[in-house]
Amino acid sequence: MFTDGWENDWHIVDGDELLAKELIPVFEKYLTALNEKGASKSTINRHKNACHAIGGYIIDQVFKYEWDDLEGPWN
Fold first, then answer.
1. Separation between Cα atoms, residue 6 and residue 23, nearest integer Å
2. 65 to each of 5, 14, 33, 56, how far by Cα in Å?
3. Measuring CA to CA, how many Å separate 23 from each of 19, 27, 68, 72?
4. What is the pTM of this model?
5. HSE (CB half, 13 Å, CA atoms) of 6?
6. In a structure prediction context, what are the per-residue pLDDT tens digits for the chain, which is 75 residues long?
């Protein structure tokens, strides 16, 4: 419900989907508990965005993705 499509957002190389499938239920359980406790929609969205970022960071660190360096300064 809260985490639909996250595995696709995090997927870059083969193998990372296995880790995503293990992380998603943890985040789903946490966000469902927030919802059941009556947290506001904005609070749930804030936590949902944080969980999405944390999951992406975990996968990034485990698989050691290397991003291309910027070729020039930001405009």
1. 10
2. 20, 12, 32, 11
3. 6, 7, 26, 35
4. 0.80
5. 27
6. 899 999 889 887 788 888 999 999 999 999 999 999 999 999 999 999 999 999 999 988 888 766 555 555 555
